[in-house]
Each structure stands twice: as structure tokens, then as C-alpha cells.
């Protein structure tokens, strides 16, 4: 992470400070101080790369002159302890160029200060430190008074910055030095003659008392007085200050700018804006505004030295700041030497893995010198907590911590255990009725059937606009009919609100849910179903906590999301990791877009083919380039205005990635509505975002959750009335929220601005806030900060149409736009890399060492109520005695998931269960032999992944190798070749190559297109039918293809024939362990036809008299066998 620093302080006359002197120093310029009648000359100062004064609306242009601005500030303040100005100083990431840093500082200052009504004097310094590295930072001097329009009469009063000379008792400006605490007057020598005391800012040249004037200086003093009077008259006449003429200048002090919460807002916004810009520039660093304590980093924060303090040691002068800074750095370095894990914990706050460069940056910031840096690096790299994971896709070594690995291993264990546990069955009749609901598509019905199965963990991966909320609403009804309590949660308030509105599931944020659990309220119970929406935005730590709590009490969790949309803020891509391990059901039929080609584009965005999707919209004339970013903003607003006039009933939204762009779009849209007479009288409203003007008919965004109002961060509404005033403290906005009936047609809330000020205009929004939103038309401003995940969200919010505008000065030509919007930033997890335990097993195997697996079977006891139960519940381990002797199978360790079935997906015991070495609905999973490649996973295959133009034909690249073969035989042969190649690699403990994985995926995709379910059917046939397995390896070409197609036909017969299912069940029985047999008998109860057939004709089908299966088929035996299994587990303890 880059360095974060933002500090605010007040420039006060009580400490001898001068606003003019401070401004001169920060701008490296020469300014004349009228109050002191002296020059402050710092024009020889180096390192100032940008100086600019930014004015709020209505401010006079004379304030663009630095000397005029700060002399008027000095003039209007009469108290000897007056607060002259506020200064905000912040560090700019050194990874940026000067131009980039200046642009970032200007955007921040304009958004957070100028828009609130402050005059801002911005100076960017690009100093070079002793280590040769740049130390870029910005100084912003801010006015403390508002700009007001007054009459000439008021101007002549005492508080005006330029009083009339004839009315001033002490000459023009009343600028005689104020008496100091001891009665002496304060003045000062010139900046050149100033000899600052230790640790004093050279810019504070006016701090020291003036020397008493002797008789020889009296004439000079008289001359200065004459010049002051003349300057006052000239300025007075130039401003045209007639007795009753209006005058624009500084008015009353604005006390709200002193609010501590506002400073916290500035700190947070600087971090978010800088991080947005770093992402836009593709710089892999971030800053964090939180304190070390808030971040959980056990280090002491270092103070800032500042350029003045940095130069004092060079002159041989003492500097307390430098000494304090180095002392804190040394103490932190000593802390890291003693506890190197502190550095590692800090690095894994927002990312699961990191590079050595990341580590070096962190250590460099928290050590005093090169020797300590080297010592700490050696110590941290030798820390037992540090784990080397291997290289990432860019060839960089990645590292993590044992703590992070432990978190994500517990996440994996909880996921697998819940995926196997089956405690939330829904009656078959209820499930069938739910799946048959009108309006559900095939994939939605399949998803309803999947999530209402008895498994305690289900994962739904749904593309944007595929009707996930509709599906969940149907599932909710089924769960409630079965007697379960259904609850919803999401990371953000607006996502929780959307989940509740779309599915009827009462929902709240995950953070509030966890807080309630910690206090002992709203605890999960065994009969609960927790639906987590937008789960792709949840980090590994929070996901592990939620799953472990649910697992501990026996609740069911349903995760719903899309790993291709916006990524988790915290460390780890947890949703993707869970989906890979327990399997998922996918909903890929896009329903939101009404045009077929737009639905295809959304699928392309969902699968990372951003260039193809943009190509479709570009061909339709909906991707429009502009010369500048400013023109692109104007194009977005013009498109919005044209569309709303053509279809006023349609919902619309303008989207941008950066808040500064959202602000500009909102202002422009509001101006259009104002000119059209669509708004009432303007009312100036102080908000957390700065001053905003609202009126009747205004679109408004709520930006903070509030239970009393019943609004979330992201709720939209329409202003229906404004009463009261800011001055009286009773300003109230009456807002009608958006509802099911449309825009501004929901319930009405009364918002007291004194209590709730998190408001903004609602014509435009950030892309991040729009995830989960659906509108008729969207208008997108594409900027260089976006990636493919943001582009996916932005280009999939609409029903009717979406337009994209971009500026060539921002991202270049169309190719540049495509490149920016195609950048992949998926978060990784430690589970994506080989773990230490895998390498340990490999080490033992290579040396012929046999490390037997534990035969202890641990049963999970009754769960204690509440979250206080140990979240690391004991996992049930099922030993497989045959696994040590059994030859490694070609499918062991492969995840050939199809249509939502992962390697732990449920398979009907009576219809193709791998009874000898697999698992069925019982949730009993085979113990795969240890191997470096045991975790190999291949992508899931979906029919929707096949290009729409494929139809029923095999691409030319897959045809021609089976002379005379039809498309099905050709696809089966190509699939067989790919599987055989992978199987041979796995059996020889060799890594499966990328081209082999791709060949398998391509062949599987084509095969699924031609014959849905064929991949799973072939896998089952290979496992159960020796002839099919022999054909796979022993035959070639058309002969093999014909034999495998026969296998497919046989599997169809097995699924529809109770006799064939019974024969397979009996054949597989002897290969099951005693525990598996008990569970299999329970599963048999779900297939009444099969059970009846086995009881009536069991002996004819091969069931031996007196065997465990024969006894188990007797009604009174089933429960006995189950109890026996339980006794065996207790004995194992």
C-alpha cells in the first residue's frame, strides 16, 4: 500500500501566524503584506510544481490574485487571536507522475472544498528526499468565511476587509500591529532578514515582535502610513464602493466547516478518490485512511516532518519533528524485528496474497534507515508465519500468511462440510410445485430445485439480469411452506433492499447481522435459511465467519452472486472459491435486456469477452467517442435528456466510475430540468457532500442507511416538498421514495436535514452503487479507471438500451477504450496456490515415506445455540480402506462440473451413483489419494457458453476426423481424445497443460450443445461400465465414438429403468463402507419404486441372503444399521 497522510490545522494570529506569509511560502512566491507593510519573499524555494486558486460559484475574480485574497482575509479579521485560514495537507502517491498527481489534487480540492463554498489556494510540492525518492504532497489554504453579497453601507463597517479610510480610527485598513500577550506590538522584519527559531516554519515570518522604532525610523514609518492610505483609497475606488452599491466579499464565519465529522469525510474521500485514480492508472498500490488501530496494525503512527523540518538538519539546526519521526520509525522497526508477523498481518488486510515488492514498501515506511530496513526484511522473510505460495499468472512470486491460509482453509472446510450436510429437506411435492411455477425459465426452475434440496450450502451463479431475485422469491415460498425461516443479507444496504424487494425475503446488511450476533440477538437457528445476495463482494474473512456460524448451529446458507461483477473490498475472492469447491447451479439466460443481441452481449460481458460485447454496441452506434472527457460528459447528459423526452415514463440513469464525474453529470442534468421549468424554487441545503441546491420535483439519492427513515445507501426518491430553513434548524425535505409503481411512487418520508444530511442529486450514480439496479435506459461515461468488472455492471443495467461515451484525451482511441474496459482484476485466494501441506505430502511420497491417514472418525455433537459455539466445528472424516490399494482413477481430483454440478454435486444414488469410490445424495465424498494435482479443476460447461451461431453443427476444427460420422459422433470422439489426454497426465502425476484444459472445455461445450447432460453421462458410464472405460483407452476414431454413444444411450436407459438402477445399486453395494451403506439405505427411501423392486426381486438381482444389503432391505433393519453406525463413530472417539 502507498503512504496515506492527510492533516488539517488552523493558521491563527494568536500564534503569530500571517496568512499572507503562509501563502507566499507555500506558493514559493513574493507577496506584500499590507497589514505589516512588508514583503514575504520565498521565490527561491524549490519543489513547487503547481500553484492555483480555485473559487466557488459567486466569488469575485479579484480573489484569483493571491496577494489580494489573503490581504483581505487579514483585513477582515480584527481579533488578535483570529483564525485566519485552515490548511489541509495531504500526500500524493509517489507512483503517479506530476501531471497525474496535480490532476488528482485539483479534483479532490474542487469536490471537497470549493463545492462547499470555500476559497482554496492549492500548491503542489514535489520535493526530493534524502533517499532520492520523491515526496509529493499538496498544501491547501482554505478560507473560513463564506462569500456574501452586501451593500456599500455594510462594507464600511468594522468587519469589512477594506474599511473606508476616513472612518478608520487608525488609518486605512486599520492595519496597525495588534498587541501581543505582553502588550508589545507584533510586526516583523522582512522575510529575508527573518531568523526563524528552531522548528519554526519559514513561512511564519510574521511571528516575532517588531523592534521599537527609534527617532531615525520615524520618517520611514510615516512614509509607510502614507502608502497604506493611498493603497486603500485606490483599492476602494477600484471596487466602486459607493454607499449603497452591492459588494461581494467575505461574510460570516462558517462554523460547520469546523465539524470533526467533516474532517473524517475528507480523510475517507481522499483515500477513495486516490484509490480510484490509482486503479485507473493501472498502478497496483492503494492507500487506507483508517488509523493503524482501526486497520488492526499494531504499529505507532509516524508524524510528518514537513519540508521546513527536513532542511533544518542540513543546516546543522535541531529539529524535534525529524527526531520524533525517526524515533517512531526506529521503534516501529524494533517492533517489527521483535514481532515480524505484524507486517504480514497488515499486508493481508485487503488482499489474500502479496509480492515481495509489497512487503519491501511496507517495511521501508516503518524503519529508520537502510540497516534497520535490511534487518527487518531478513527477519520478516524468515518469519514462520510467512508462506511462499508460488508464482501467479504474471510470473511473480506470491506470499501469504498462515493466518490467511487458515482462514481460507476453514472457509473451504466449512463449505465442503455444509455441502455434504443435508438438514434442510423440502418435501418433493412442494419442490415440484415451486419448479412448475408459471413464468420461470428452465434454468430458473432448475435453480429453484437445486437450492431447495436438503444440502446446507447452495451456490447460485447468475449472470446480470437473469432473474435471480424472481427465482429466490419462488424458493422462499417453498422454504416457508416446509417450515423454515428465511432471512436475507448482503454487503451493502441497497443490495439488501433490492433482495427484499425482488424476492420478499426480509434482508439486512451482513455487518449489522454480525453485530446483532455479537450482542446475542437475531441468532441463526437450525431451521433457518440465510440467503446472501451479491456474495461476490464478500471477502474471505467475513464469508468464513458467516459460514462457520451457520455450520455451527446447523443453518442453511444460499450464496447468490456473480464472480465477474464488482470484486470484494476485503481480502480474497471467497465466492469464487466456494463455488469451485461445492459446485453451483448457473442461471445464464439473460432476461433483463429485451433485444436478443443485447442478451448475447451481456453473456459476453459475463464471460470476460468485453471486446466482443463492445463490438456489438459499437456496431449499433451506441459507443460514441468524443475529443475530450468534458465533451463525453456533455454527450451522456444530452443522450439522457433526449431519451427522457422521447419516453418520459421510462426509468433512466447516468453512470460513471468516479464521483467527480457523477457530480458533474448531476449538475448538468439539474440545469437542464431547471431551464425546462420542471423544478420548484431552489433551496440551499448543507449536506455531507457539500452544499446542494434542491427543489420540488428533484431526484435525490440517500447515501447512508437509516433504520428510522427506512432508507438504505443507494435509495432513490423524488422531493415533494421543502419546509423550514437552515437558519432555524428545522429544514425538512419531504421525499417520496421509488416503489414498485415506479419512480417517486413509493412511501413518503420526512427528512430533517439536521439529523440526516447524507443526500445528493439522483440523476447519476457511481457504477459501484448501481450493482443490482435495473432501469429502462442507461447512459455510461467510460473512463480509464474502469475494468472489465465495472464495464460488465454498467453495460447490463438496462432493459431497452445503453449508450457509452468516452473522451479520447482520457483513454485514447476505440482500441484504448477496449483495452481499459477489458482489464481483469479478479481477486485471488491462497486456495489458488499449492499449500504447504500439499508440498509436505509430495516430499514424503517422493522419498517413499508412508504417512497413514487417521482412522479416527469424529462425530459432530449437538450444536450449541448462538454464535458463541466454536466456529471451527469438527469435520467428519470418512476413511476409505480401499483407497491405498486402488489404482488412481483418471477422474480422481478432476472437477468436470456440468450445469452447476461440482465435484461435490449431488447425484442420485439410484441413478448413476459411483457407489464404490464416489458420493451421492448421502453427502459422503471419496477420499482422493494425495497428489499435487488432486485439486485440478476444469471450468464448468454450460450450453449458453456455445456461440449462438453454432446451432447443431460442429465447428470445422472439430470435424473431419471421423469419416462419415454425424456431428454427435464427431463431438464424442473429440471429447474422448481430450479426456484421454488429461487422464494420462493425471495417472502419471504430471501437470495438465493449459492447451489440454482448453481442448477439454471446447469439446465439452460442443458436446453439451448437441446433447445436454452428455458429459456427466459419459463420466458415469466410464466409472460404472468397464467396457466403456476400455473403449475410451483402447479404441480410436469412429469405433470409439460409436461405443461411447452406445454408452450414452445405456445411461439414458438406466435413468428410466428401475431394473437397471437396481442392478447397478446391488453391484455397487459391496464397495461401500459400513457408514456409506447406512446412508445409502436412507437415500433408498426416497426412491419408492427402486426400494420396492429390491425387496421383491432382490435375490433375483443378486442380493445375497444374509448379506448386509439383504438385512438392510428389511424395514426394521434400516434404523438398526444407522444406530450401529453411530456406535462405531462413538467408539472411534
TrEMBL record:
Q: What is this protein called?
A: Ti-type conjugative transfer relaxase TraA
Origin species: Komagataeibacter oboediens
Going by the entry's taxonomy, the superkingdom of the source organism is recorded as Bacteria
Family to which this protein belongs: Belongs to the MobA/MobL family.
MobA/MobL protein domain ranges (all copies): 17-311
Keywords from the named record: Conjugation
Q: Does the keyword Transit peptide apply?
A: no
Which InterPro entries does this UniProt record tie to the protein? MobA_MobL, P-loop_NTPase, TraA_Ti
Q: Where are the stretches annotated Disordered?
A: 151-209, 859-931, 1104-1133
Indicate yes or no for the key word Lipid biosynthesis: no
Q: What ranges does the record list as Basic and acidic residues composition bias?
A: 151-169, 196-209
Amino acid at each position: 500500500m502507498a503512504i496515506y497522510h492527510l492533516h488539517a490545522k488552523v493558521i491563527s494570529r494568536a500564534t503569530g501566524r500571517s496568512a499572507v506569509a503562509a501563502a507566499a511560502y507555500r506558493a514559493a512566491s513574493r507577496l506584500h503584506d499590507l497589514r505589516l507593510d512588508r514583503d514575504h519573499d520565498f521565490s527561491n524555494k524549490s519543489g513547487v510544481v503547481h500553484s492555483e486558486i480555485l473559487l466557488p460559484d459567486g466569488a469575485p475574480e479579484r480573489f484569483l490574485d493571491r496577494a489580494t485574497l489573503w490581504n483581505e482575509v487579514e483585513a477582515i479579521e480584527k481579533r488578535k487571536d483570529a483564525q485566519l485560514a485552515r490548511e489541509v495537507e495531504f500526500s500524493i502517491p509517489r507512483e503517479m507522475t506530476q501531471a497525474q498527481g496535480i490532476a488528482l489534487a485539483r479534483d479532490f480540492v474542487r469536490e471537497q472544498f470549493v463545492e462547499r463554498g470555500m476559497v482554496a489556494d492549492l500548491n503542489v510540492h514535489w520535493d526530493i528526499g534524502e533517499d532520492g525518492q520523491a515526496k509529493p504532497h499538496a498544501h491547501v489554504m482554505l478560507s473560513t468565511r463564506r462569500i456574501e453579497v452586501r451593500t456599500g453601507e455594510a462594507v464600511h463597517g468594522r468587519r469589512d476587509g477594506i474599511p473606508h479610510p476616513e472612518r478608520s480610527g487608525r488609518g486605512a485598513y486599520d492595519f496597525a500591529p495588534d498587541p501581543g500577550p505582553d502588550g508589545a506590538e507584533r510586526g516583523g522584519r522582512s522575510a529575508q532578514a527573518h531568523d526563524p527559531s528552531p522548528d519554526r516554519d519559514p513561512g511564519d515570518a510574521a511571528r516575532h515582535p517588531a523592534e521599537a522604532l527609534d527617532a531615525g525610523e520615524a520618517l520611514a514609518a510615516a512614509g509607510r502610513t502614507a502608502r497604506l492610505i493611498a493603497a486603500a483609497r485606490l483599492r476602494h475606488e477600484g471596487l466602486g464602493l459607493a454607499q449603497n452599491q452591492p459588494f461581494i466579499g467575505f461574510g460570516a464565519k462558517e462554523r460547520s466547516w469546523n465539524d470533526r465529522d467533516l474532517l473524517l469525510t475528507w480523510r475517507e474521500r481522499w483515500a477513495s478518490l486516490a484509490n480510484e485514480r490509482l486503479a485507473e492508472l493501472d498502478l497496483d498500490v492503494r492507500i487506507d485512511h483508517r488509523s493503524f488501530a482501526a486497520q488492526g496494525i499494531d504499529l505507532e503512527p509516524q508524524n510528518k516532518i514537513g519540508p521546513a523540518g527536513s532542511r533544518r538538519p542540513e543546516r546543522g539546526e535541531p529539529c524535534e519533528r525529524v527526531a520524533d519521526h525517526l524515533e517512531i520509525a526506529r521503534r516501529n522497526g524494533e517492533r517489527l524485528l521483535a514481532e515480524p508477523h505484524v507486517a504480514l498481518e497488515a499486508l493481508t488486510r485487503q488482499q489474500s496474497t502479496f509480492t515481495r515488492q509489497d512487503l519491501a514498501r511496507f517495511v521501508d515506511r516503518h524503519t529508520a534507515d537502510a540497516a534497520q530496513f535490511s534487518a527487518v526484511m531478513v527477519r520478516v522473510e524468515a518469519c514462520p508465519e510467512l508462506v511462499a505460495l508460488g508464482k501467479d499468472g504474471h510470473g511473480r512470486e506470491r506470499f501469504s500468511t498462515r493466518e490467511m491460509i487458515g482462514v481460507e482453509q476453514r472457509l473451504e472446510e466449512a463449505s465442503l462440510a455444509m455441502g455434504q450436510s443435508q438438514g434442510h429437506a423440502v418435501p418433493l411435492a412442494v419442490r415440484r410445485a415451486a419448479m412448475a411455477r408459471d413464468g420461470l425459465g428452465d434454468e430458473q426452475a432448475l435453480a429453484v430445485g437445486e437450492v431447495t434440496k436438503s444440502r446446507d450450502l447452495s451456490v447460485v451463479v447468475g449472470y446480470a439480469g437473469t432473474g435471480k431475485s424472481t427465482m429466490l422469491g419462488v424458493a422462499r415460498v417453498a422454504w416457508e411452506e416446509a417450515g423454515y425461516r428465511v432471512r436475507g443479507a448482503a454487503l451493502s444496504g441497497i443490495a439488501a433492499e433490492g433482495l427484499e424487494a425482488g424476492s420478499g425475503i426480509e434482508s439486512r446488511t451482513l455487518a449489522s447481522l454480525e453485530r446483532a450476533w455479537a450482542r446475542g440477538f437475531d441468532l441463526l437457528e437450525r431451521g433457518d435459511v440465510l440467503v446472501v445476495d451479491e456474495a461476490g463482494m464478500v471477502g474471505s474473512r467475513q464469508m468464513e465467519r458467516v459460514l462457520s456460524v451457520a455450520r455451527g448451529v446447523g443453518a442453511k446458507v444460499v450464496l447468490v452472486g456473480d464472480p465477474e461483477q464488482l470484486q470484494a473490498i476485503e481480502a480474497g475472492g471467497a465466492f469464487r472459491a466456494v463455488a469451485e469447491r461445492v459446485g453451483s447451479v448457473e442461471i445464464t439466460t439473460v432476461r433483463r435486456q429485451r433485444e436478443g443481441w443485447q442478451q448475447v452481449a451481456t453473456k459476453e460481458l459475463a464471460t470476460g469477452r468485453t471486446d466482443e460485447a463492445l463490438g456489438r454496441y459499437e456496431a449499433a452506434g451506441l459507443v460514441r467517442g468524443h475529443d475530450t472527457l468534458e465533451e463525453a460528459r456533455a454527450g451522456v447528459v444530452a443522450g439522457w435528456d433526449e431519451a427522457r423526452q422521447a419516453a418520459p415514463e421510462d426509468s433512466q440513469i447516468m453512470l460513471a466510475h468516479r464521483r467527480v464525474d457523477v457530480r458533474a453529470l448531476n449538475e448538468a442534468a439539474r440545469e437542464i430540468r431547471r431551464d425546462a421549468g420542471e423544478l420548484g424554487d431552489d433551496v440551499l441545503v448543507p449536506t455531507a457532500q457539500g452544499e446542494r441546491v434542491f427543489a420540488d420535483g428533484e431526484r435525490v439519492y440517500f447515501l447512508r442507511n437509516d433504520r428510522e427513515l427506512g432508507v438504505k445507501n443507494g435509495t432513490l426518491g423524488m422531493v415533494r416538498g421543502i419546509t423550514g430553513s437552515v437558519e432555524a434548524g428545522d429544514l425538512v425535505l419531504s421525499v417520496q421514495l421509488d416503489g414498485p409503481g415506479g419512480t417517486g411512487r413509493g412511501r413518503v418520508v420526512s427528512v430533517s436535514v439536521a439529523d440526516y444530511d447524507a443526500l445528493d442529486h439522483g440523476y447519476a450514480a457511481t457504477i459501484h452503487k448501481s450493482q443490482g439496479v435495473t432501469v429502462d435506459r442507461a447512459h455510461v461515461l467510460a473512463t480509464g479507471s474502469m475494468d472489465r468488472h465495472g464495464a460488465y455492471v454498467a453495460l447490463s443495467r438496462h432493459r431497452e438500451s445503453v449508450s457509452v461515451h468516452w473522451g479520447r484525451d482520457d483513454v485514447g482511441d476505440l482500441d484504448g477504450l477496449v483495452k481499459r474496459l477489458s482489464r481483469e482484476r479478479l481477486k485471488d485466494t491462497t486456495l489458488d496456490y499449492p499449500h504447504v501441506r500439499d508440498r509436505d505430502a509430495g516430499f514424503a511420497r517422493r522419498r517413499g515415506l508412508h504417512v497413514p491417514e487417521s482412522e479416527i472418525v469424529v462425530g459432530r455433537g449437538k450444536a450449541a445455540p448462538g454464535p458463541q459455539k466454536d466456529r471451527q466445528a469438527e469435520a467428519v472424516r470418512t476413511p476409505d480402506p480401499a483407497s491405498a490399494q486402488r489404482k488412481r482413477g483418471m477422474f480422481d481430483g478432476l472437477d468436470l462440473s456440468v450445469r452447476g454440478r461440482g465435484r461435490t454435486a449431488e447425484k442420485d444414488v439410484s441413478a448413476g451413483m459411483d457407489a464404490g469410490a464416489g458420493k451421492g445424495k448421502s453427502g459422503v465424498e471419496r477420499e482422493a489419494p494425495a497428489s499435487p494435482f488432486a485439486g485440478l479443476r476444469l471450468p464448468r460447461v454450460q450450453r449458453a457458453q456455445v456461440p449462438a451461431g453454432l446451432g447443431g453443427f460442429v465447428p470445422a476444427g472439430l470435424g473431419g476426423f471421423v469419416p462419415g460420422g454425424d456431428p454427435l459422433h464427431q463431438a464424442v470422439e473429440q471429447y474422448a481424445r481430450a479426456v484421454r489426454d488429461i487422464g494420462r497426465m493425471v495417472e502419471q502425476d504430471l501437470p495438465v497443460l493449459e492447451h489440454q484444459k482448453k481442448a477439454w472445455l471446447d469439446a465439452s461445450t460442443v458436446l453439451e450443445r448437441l446433447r445436454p447432460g452428455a458429459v456427466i453421462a459419459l463420466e458415469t458410464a466410464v466409472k460404472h461400465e468397464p467396457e466403456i472405460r476400455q473403449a475410451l483407452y483402447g479404441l480410436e476414431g469412429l469405433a470409439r465414438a460409436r461405443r461411447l454413444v452406445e454408452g450414452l444411450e445405456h445411461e439414458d436407459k438406466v435413468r428410466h429403468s428401475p431394473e437397471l438402477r437396481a442392478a447397478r445399486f446391488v453391484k455397487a453395494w459391496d464397495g461401500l463402507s459400513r457408514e456409506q451403506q447406512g446412508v445409502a439405505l436412507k437415500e433408498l427411501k426416497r426412491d419408492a419404486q427402486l426400494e420396492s423392486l429390491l425387496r421383491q426381486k432382490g435375490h433375483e438381482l443378486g442380493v445375497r441372503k444374509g448379506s448386509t444389503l439383504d438385512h438392510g432391505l428389511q424395514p426394521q433393519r434400516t434404523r438398526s444399521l444407522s444406530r450401529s453406525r453411530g456406535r462405531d463413530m462413538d467408539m472411534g472417539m
